[in-house]
Amino acid sequence: MTESISLPTYYFGHVISVLKQSGIGIEQWLASQRLDLAKLLEADARVSLQQFDGLMKTVIENHGFEDLGLSVGKRLEIAHHGDFGLAILNSATVRQVLDFHVKFLPIRVPLIKLNYHIEGGQIHVVLTDEHWQGGLHRAVIEAVMIAIVNMLHAIRFQDNSQLLIDVVKFDYTKPNYAQKYQYIRAAQLEFDKPNCSLFFSKHFLDKPLASADHFSFQRAILNCQKELNSYLQQNLNIEDRVSKLLREDDGVALSLDDIAENLHISKRSLHRFLKREGTSYKLLLQKIKADRAMMFFQQGKTVTEVAYLLDYSDCANFRRAFKTWFGVAPKEWILKNRITNATK
Fold first, then answer.
1. Is 165 helix (H, G, I), strand (E, B) or coil?
2. Planar angle of CA 298, 302, 303, nearest 5 degrees
3. Helices then strands, each counted (H, E), the chain
4. CA-CA distance, 95 to 199, in Å (whole number)?
5. Count of alpha carbons within 13 angstroms of residue 42, beta-carbon side
6. Is the CB of residue 136 less than 8 Å from the CB of residue 58?
7. Is residue 237 scored above 90 in pLDDT?
């Protein structure tokens, strides 16, 4: 689900610069989504996906700024990507650059995935949009594709040659400002295709790059990994986040109200999100308790002890719950598993 996903404000400075040049009022634009410039400049600042979509729709639909993505993408050079850019600059080969994008692109543009494969004598790089549609899809793809093109054009090999892009394809209709796409400097541009992709010769894939530095690359990778870990922790789906909280609490004390408060959403929204993912607070709680019960019995604890540890008011209620989970009474499960373990 995308409701809980947030985006880094890494490139908002470039968006704001483009909008200022077009005479769009920045303060009012940000205020439409309850944001201000000071908040965007804070360390590790992020905006919700809903806020981002609202801001982009305002510019594209209300102000008619159809080529926003292209205008922003043209500004994005390797130096603007932080540790992400440092990793690219210090990569040993284009293959390493692409492998890096496959893993770490979400720390800069969540919900856009990059993959690549060899197709005949060509490298086929594919961008997949997992969220945006219509004008927003085009804007995001334009920005990401052109940023990647800028990166590929900036690469220098040890023999001082440059990578040449043969074809760039887009999965949307040719826009009325398509002449601006010549900036991409590809031999061929195509629209209305099944996916968004670019092609270049596979002989570039493993040619050594001029600026490669293994130590600097590893330092950048470590920092990007920290960012990725943080992103994944913040953007797990609701089921995973609820399960994580329940596991940390041993599935004992946290109520539905507690979970909702922890996730900064209403109890009603929490129930709706979990239902959309095919589960419920009750089902997740029972799974955590079932897992804990097995672990405690494997540790040699008694039925009475486990019932107490899992916060059951009496053993009878615990026995009924356990039989619902595993189809047998606790003592029968213990006996069966002791015999099974003894034969291993």
1. strand
2. 105
3. 16, 7
4. 14
5. 9
6. no
7. no
pLDDT of residue 271: 86
Give the residue among 223, 195, 194 at the shortest CA–CA distance from 87.
Answer: 223
Work out the pLDDT band at 343, boundaries 50, 70, 90: very low
How many other CB atoms sit within 10 Å of the CB of residue 333?
A: 19
Residue 119 pairs in a beta bridge with 122
Residue 339 in 3-state DSSP? helix
Helix (H, G, I), strand (E, B) or coil at 122: strand
The domain 238-342 is placed in CATH, from the list 3.20.20.10, 1.10.10.60, 3.40.190.170, 3.40.50.2000, at 1.10.10.60
Residue type, 10: Y
Q: CB–CB of 15/57 below 8 Å?
A: no
pTM for this entry: 0.70
As a residue count, the chain comes to 344
CA 134 vs. chain centroid, Å, equals 21
Write down the residue that tokens 């996903």 correspond to. Answer: 5
- The residue extents of the domains of the chain are 6-229, 238-342
> 269-308: b or e for each residue (b if 16 or more CB lie within 10 Å)?
ebeebbeeeebbbeebbebbbbebbbebbeeebebeebbe
- In angstroms, the CA 121 to CA 130 distance is 28
The burial of 28, by beta-carbon neighbours within 10 Å (0-12 exposed, 13-18 middle, 19 or more buried), is given as exposed
> Domain 6-229: which topology?
H-NOX domain (3.90.1520)
Determine the average pLDDT of the residues in 227-253: 76
Give residue 161's pLDDT.
95
CA dist 344 and 341 (Å) reads 5
Within 13 A of 315's CA, how many CA atoms are on the CB side?
A: 8
Tokens of 285: 């709680």
